[in-house]
UniProtKB/TrEMBL annotation, chain A:
Name assigned to this protein: Dihydrolipoamide acetyltransferase component of pyruvate dehydrogenase complex
Segments of skewed composition (Low complexity): 125-140
Domain Peripheral subunit-binding (PSBD): 188-225
GO molecular function: acyltransferase activity
Enzyme class: transferase
InterPro entries according to UniProt: 2-oxoA_DH_lipoyl-BS (IPR003016), 2-oxoacid_DH_actylTfrase (IPR001078), Biotin_lipoyl (IPR000089), CAT-like_dom_sf (IPR023213), E2/Pdx1 (IPR045257), E3-bd_dom_sf (IPR036625), PSBD (IPR004167), Single_hybrid_motif (IPR011053)
Region listing for Disordered, in residue ranges: 125-149
Protein species of origin: Salvia divinorum (Maria pastora)
Automatic annotation (TrEMBL), chain B:
Predominant location: plastid
Residues the record lists as binding NAD(+): G259, S260, G261, Y262, I263, G264, L265, E266, E282, G355
Purpose of the protein: Lipoamide dehydrogenase is a component of the plastidial pyruvate dehydrogenase complex (PDC).
Protein name (record): Dihydrolipoyl dehydrogenase
First-level EC class: oxidoreductase
Pfam families: Pyr_redox_2 (PF07992), Pyr_redox_dim (PF02852)
PANTHER family the record matches: DIHYDROLIPOYL DEHYDROGENASE, MITOCHONDRIAL (PTHR22912:SF151), DISULFIDE OXIDOREDUCTASE (PTHR22912)
This protein's GO CC annotations: chloroplast stroma
Gene behind the chain: LPD2
Molecular-function GO term, any one: dihydrolipoyl dehydrogenase (NADH) activity
Organism taxonomic ancestry: Eukaryota, Viridiplantae, Streptophyta, Embryophyta, Tracheophyta
Residues given in the record as FAD binding sites: K127, G193, T222, G223, S224, D401, M407, L408, A409, H410
Record-annotated membrane-spanning stretches: none
Stretches assigned to the FAD/NAD(P)-binding domain: 81-416
Length: 472, 567
């Protein structure tokens, strides 16, 4: 993951770099004198060579809260040429680290804040947390404070207590300690799982491990993230602070919530997959008739559609495949139909696992259970991240057709419109009224081709138009 | 080398790998091929004697007829051998080869397998595994391959075949070593050797009758075994030492490695390349405590942080229980300072790499009034064994891991050669500061001489200045061609005299690059001399070339110390 673009640049123009580099013999670039008499200073990414445009933070020699003496080495920066120790130009305290180890920042951007006195550390930290978590690309940044600080030297003291709790949240991003080693609640997670969770900003506590003895392993973390990919799954993994839709303040700039950033990132990520779309119109009279007949037994339309789709997928395994690395693809061994559901403040995709094998009545019960759990935010990761094919239905809102974005990690998604009566001409030259439903499948063209989708849709049409098999 | 595994209940060296030499097990079997292929009479008589901390270059030229005939005839008839060496590891082997060259009638006693730790359970098989891990790393590094324009389908490995490679390599080197001794006429006596009195050794398999031989001089070279701290139950399956790990009987999903010295680091390289995740447990506050701090920091950034490795520092593993009945391996950690319980880990396997303990039990040292110190045999700078009263014991020497001076295979060999030099009439003291050490991770780490903190301390005590020069692999053409620019070479020297105090390298082929520096230290070559030596372009050795050239000497001393000879 590239982090270079993530550094927040709000503070860039306000002050000259407060750092100089130290070379072996002590030569350093001349700098303009420091102009601002602020007590909290920014530490900038220095230019260590004439060609350097960005630098990577190799390691922080000092930690937040450490006292710094002028000339002391604070951070090691890797440039395009070499690694160099960077010294502080001032006495003070390293109040807040903005760019964590291993991440890059553009030359001149703020990488940390320096407080002159110990008392100002908290203030500086509040400034840090009030700027959107700049570097980690993680969803765990504390971005609740919608304020954008224009000017460093004039802090708003009242902001400090409000943000203090957030910064403790945010510290999880930069902390090098292992969650499992913190006393009290133990999370057993493998080293790589911990690393991934930290990098991706996933909270290990919310993850159910699939490794030996319930250990959280890397794929559990990936799965938890994939759930977010599908759209807002983080609402289920963390007790996310959901913004109340009431009372939107017009003209305000609202930073993304954790979930929104995750959705945003994953939607952008989906652009890396070459997708295409194929539409089809089903006649649903027979399906509607069947639905009426067995509705009383608790069967839902969603379950019927999922079942029909699953049965069609049995015959077209390529449509149920997924390509992750761009070099190979996997024929998934299970047919798990994920169905998008709007929940308070977001969207989640409970998964009907093995929908081809389970009878329609059990499937309907399972669906009800999943929806209840989703509303209560109690879905387990495997209940929302194991989908191999996704259904998204906006028919209930009267939408007749739409287009869905393919969730990364899956091969295809089907957008389902409303079932509506339509006048159609039949082959025998007559005009009749039929109930029709339009679907539109988005698929990854690296593995699924037009003919594959066409054949799949044809099979699905047969099943829907002669749905008696669904109840078997 | 006697190296069966014994439970050791000695009070033990620090848990971690504070001193690199106490935990290392690196070797170079540099002499076995040499000894094997050329009959002694055709070999060069120019022995590269290593001068003892002086700057003079000595070339000792021996006349074979004199030394050999003289020694052999002067040996009293009552001695069976001129020299008996107890232990056929790299140290014993090196000593034996040199002894034969010097015309001594030599026997070597081995109670276990020829080749000792290095060949059978140490550097040799581990290099085989590291060769595999290096290639796996290359093949898995998509980014790197892409940058080179290569396309490789998914890389995989066959565990048994990898294990066989390591085992076959060990057998092959063992065969070479045994043959080289036989070809030179060294008698191989089988059994555990015990000193029964001055110049007298008995040997024999346990349970069978003992044979006694007499020798004018005796060298103890019994080596070491993995050190396992108390509270750790080694079952050889899920809680293992390097002895077991080298057999690669399984590749756990998650392995904890106790100790982050050379052995731990090398195994972390192997295991992560084969797909394991690793947790280091280190008693010191920092990983890799034995290395130069700057090199350690860089190594951590490259070898630890980006890999599937996490770590706990400043903790002791007080209790490690093997996996049983479906339960994982459990490791109880306490804070190294406060001794408070800190955490419990549940992992699939644990590798104990907390260093090595000398293997000196049963040597009969009590018969000659020698008291070991934590198992180590006390010796002076000429490897002469010191008895309990502080007196030198005539005709008895101890080399290698058993004396604990610098626990490296090639140190043992060099010490053995030094002893043989003394036996044949040339006083010789080995300069341990000129002995290089290497850790064969990817990339490698190597070093010779003092670390920066050691050098600073010495400089302060003796009242001189030190300077540091550094070069990066990023500036080296060959390294960039290989797309392996990650690396650093560091020179610690005296700006007043140009003396080289230490060189540390982290980067591609560091282990092969160090010898230019170690030879310079051994021969007393100074910076102002070596900076005029020419290095082929483009090669990695230019990293050192640049290093020497970037060293700044005080102005009065910029002239070469020795005049180059025109030819």
């Amino acid at each position: 993951m590239s982090h270079s673009h993530l550094l927040h640049t709000t503070f860039v123009p306000t002050a000259p770099p407060s750092l100089r580099r130290r070379l072996g013999v002590g030569a350093h670039l001349p700098r303009k004198p420091h102009l601002i008499q602020s007590k909290i200073r920014e530490i900038f990414m220095p230019a260590l060579s004439s060609t350097m445009t960005e630098g990577k933070i190799v390691s922080w020699v000092k930690s937040e809260g450490d006292k710094l003496a002028k000339g002391e080495s604070v951070v090691v920066v890797e440039s395009d040429k070499a690694d160099m120790d960077v010294e502080s130009f001032y006495d003070g305290y390293l109040a807040a680290i903005i760019v964590d180890e291993g991440l890059s920042a553009a030359v001149g951007s703020t990488i940390a804040l320096l407080a002159e006195t110990e008392e100002e550390i908290a203030l500086a930290q509040s400034k840090k947390s009030s700027s959107p978590a700049p570097a980690s690309a993680s969803a765990a940044g504390g971005n609740d404070a919608p304020m954008v600080l224009e000017e460093m030297p004039s802090p708003v003291p009242a902001a400090a207590p409000a943000v203090a709790s957030v910064s403790s949240n945010a510290s999880a991003v930069g902390s090098a300690v292992h969650p499992a080693s913190e006393g009290g609640k133990r999370v057993v997670a493998s080293p790589y799982a911990k690393k991934l969770a930290k990098d991706l900003g996933v909270d290990l506590k919310g993850i159910v491990g699939s490794g030996p003895n319930g250990r959280v392993v890397a794929k559990d973390v990936e799965a938890a993230l994939a759930a977010v990919n599908v759209g807002g799954g983080s609402a289920a993994t963390t007790a996310a602070e959901v913004a109340k839709p009431s009372g939107v303040e017009l003209g305000s700039v609202v930073p993304f919530t954790t979930m929104q950033s995750a959705v945003s990132r994953n939607m952008v990520e989906s652009l890396a997959v070459p997708t295409f779309r194929v539409g089809y119109t089903f006649t649903t009279d027979a399906l509607d008739a069947l639905y009426k007949k067995i509705k009383s037994k608790g069967v839902t339309m969603t379950a019927l559609l999922a079942k029909a789709t699953a049965l069609a997928l049995v015959q077209h395994p390529v449509v149920n495949s997924s390509c992750r690395d761009g070099k190979s693809f996997t024929y998934n061994s299970h047919i798990n139909v994920a169905v998008a559901v709007a929940i308070d403040g977001g969207l989640i995709t409970p998964v009907l696992q093995d929908a081809d094998k389970i009878d329609i009545y059990s499937l309907s019960r399972k669906w009800k259970e999943l929806v209840d759990k989703a509303r209560a935010k109690q879905l387990q990761p495997q209940e929302y991240n194991s989908g191999t094919f996704t259904l998204s239905n906006l028919g209930m809102f009267g939408v007749d057709r739409f287009d869905a974005i393919l969730p990364p990690g899956t091969g295809a998604i089907m957008a389902v419109g409303a079932s509506e009566p339509a006048l159609v001409g039949t082959k025998d030259g007559r005009i009749g009224l039929k109930t029709q439903m339009q679907v539109n499948v988005t698929a990854d063209h690296r593995v699924i081709y037009g003919a594959d989708l066409a054949a799949f849709l044809q099979t699905l049409a047969k099943i829907i138009e002669d749905p008696n098999d669904l109840t078997l | 080398m006697h190296a069966s595994i014994l439970p050791l209940s000695t009070s033990n060296p620090p848990y971690s790998t504070l001193r690199p030499h106490s935990s290392s097990r690196l070797c170079g079997l540099q002499r076995e091929a040499f000894g094997f292929c050329s009959p002694p009479q055709f070999r060069s008589r120019n022995l590269r004697a290593v001068p003892a901390k002086t700057h003079s270059r000595r070339l000792s030229v021996f006349s074979t007829s004199n030394t050999a005939a003289g020694n052999r005839s002067s040996a009293p008839a009552s001695f069976d051998y001129d020299l008996v060496i107890i232990g056929a590891g790299v140290g014993g082997h090196g000593a034996a080869l040199h002894a034969v060259e010097k015309g001594l009638k030599t026997a070597i006693i081995e109670g276990d397998v020829m080749g000792g730790t290095c060949v059978n359970r140490g550097c040799v098989p581990s290099k085989a595994l590291l060769a595999v891990s290096g290639r796996m790393r290359e093949l898995q590094d998509e980014h790197h391959l892409k940058a080179l324009g290569l396309q490789v389908a998914a890389a995989g490995y066959d565990r048994q075949a990898v294990a066989d490679h390591a085992n076959n390599l060990a057998s092959r080197i063992r065969g070479n070593l045994t043959n080289s001794l036989k070809a030179l006429g060294v008698d191989i006596l089988t059994g555990f050797g015990t000193i029964v009195g001055p110049q007298k050794v008995k040997y024999g398999k346990i349970g069978s009758s003992d044979n006694v031989v007499t020798a004018k001089d005796i060298i103890i070279a019994t080596g070491s075994v993995p050190f396992v701290p108390r509270g750790i139950e080694v079952d050889g399956k899920t809680v293992i030492t390097s002895d077991h790990a080298l057999k690669l009987e399984f590749v756990p999903d998650w392995i904890a490695i106790v100790g982050s010295g050379y052995i731990g680091l090398e195994f972390s390289d192997v295991y992560t390349a084969l797909g394991s995740e690793v947790t280091f447990i280190e008693a010191m506050d920092q990983l890799m405590p034995g290395f130069d701090p700057e090199i350690g920091k860089l190594a951590q950034r490259v070898l630890i942080n980006p890999r599937k490795i996490d770590y706990h520092t400043g903790v002791f593993a007080t209790k490690i229980t093997p996996a049983k009945d479906g339960k994982p391996v459990t490791i109880e950690l306490i804070d190294a300072k406060t001794k408070e319980p800190k955490d419990t880990l549940e992992v699939d396997a644990a590798l104990i790499a907390t260093g090595r303990a000398p293997f000196t039990k049963g040597l009969g040292l009590e018969n000659i009034n020698v008291e070991t110190q934590r198992g180590f045999v006390p010796v002076d700078e000429r490897m002469r064994v010191i008895d309990a009263d502080g007196n030198l014991i005539p005709h008895l020497y101890c080399i290698g891991d058993a004396n604990g001076k610098l626990m490296l295979a090639h140190t043992a060999s060099a010490q053995g050669i030094s002893v043989v030099e003394q036996l044949t009439g040339n006083d010789h003291v080995l300069n341990h500061l000129s002995i290089p050490a290497a850790c064969f991770t990817h990339p490698e780490i190597s070093m010779v001489g003092l670390t920066e903190p050691q050098a600073r301390e010495k400089a302060e005590n003796q009242g001189f200045e030190i300077s540091i020069a550094k070069t990066s692999f990023k500036a080296n053409t060959k390294a960039l061609a290989e797309n392996e620019g990650e690396g650093l070479a560091k020179l610690i020297y005296r700006p007043d005299t140009g003396e080289i105090l230490g060189v540390h390298i982290f980067g591609m082929h560091a282990a092969d690059l160090i010898h230019e520096a170690s030879n310079a230290i051994a021969l007393g070559t100074r910076v102002q001399d070596i900076k005029f030596a020419v290095h082929a372009h483009p090669t990695l050795s230019e990293v050192l070339d640049e290093l020497y050239k970037s060293a700044k000497l005080n102005s009065h001393n910029t002239k070469p110390a020795s005049e180059p000879v025109a030819v």
